[in-house]
Amino acid sequence: MKADRSEQDQVLGRLEALERIVAGMERSIRSFADEIRTRQIVVVDDEDHPRIVGEVFADVAELRLELPTTDGKPGAELLLFAVASTHPGPGELGPAVGVQLRAQGRALFELDAWPDIDDAWRPHLHLSGA
Question: Among 38, 64, 74, 118, which one is most buried in terms of CB atoms within 10 A?
Answer without folding.
Answer: 64
